[in-house]
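We close this part of the discussion by returning to an individual protein. In the encoding step, the backbone of a single protein was reduced to a row of integers, each denoting a local shape. The sequence in question and its structure tokens are set out directly beneath this paragraph.
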Amino acid sequence: MRLRFYRYLHRVTAPERTGLAWFDLIEFGLAALGFLCYFIVRGSVVDDAGAALDHARWIIEAQQTFGLFIEPAVNSWVLEAAWRVRSVNFVYFWLDFPLIVGIAVALFVRSRRHYTVLRDALLASGALALVMYWTFPVAPPRYLPEWGFVDTLAEFDNLSYQAQSMRPFVNPFAAVPSLHVGWSLILSIVVFDATRRVWARASVISVLGAQTVAVVGTANHFMFDAVIGALVSLAGIAFALWLQRGGYPRLRDWFQVRATRIERRMRDAAG
């Protein structure tokens, strides 16, 4: 029984494998559990409104120093046209996790290696983000009415993340890093490597650009948040690639060694 188990694990963890097996049937359940834990932990992180507001104003001062405090202008520009409001709201809400899930399913079927890189990079960057949410709470721009920010999601589409049903999964002071931008960057990198199709590459790059505008236009993030989100996600990609090149091969070798030892014992016992 153990021999079959180790042989099976060695086979199903091969990055070039195609087809479906029982392990694949629970993969999405395990991935969903991982992301559910991320959202629950993020929502349960103890937040400090005073520190979060102080950190947000520090970010504003830092961006002002470099002439990069563009958030009020972008938010105002979005509010000038109803189609812009609808566009940024759609991008922010629907071209984030729903899009990631859709592409993950496609990669799972077509390229297991790229699916695994995407999954591991998302989870690793999410874990790093949780540490930052805990140690450096930041209020989003919409919590600073003195600058005239308007939360377009709440005001125009009733898509506020602060809805009662969402509160167990949401930390209102988890603005840094912006994983909307960071995860869009991960998606772009993985898809760009997974296919040579121009339309697919152009689409994910366009989503990354649109998401960068949307996080600011909806008054949910500063540009600082987006930059830190990109850096955190690049670290997640680096970790996922390390697993592909070193971690998983070693694990498969371990499965192989265990299976070989069991086979040897069985032969010795039979002889």
The mean pLDDT is 86.
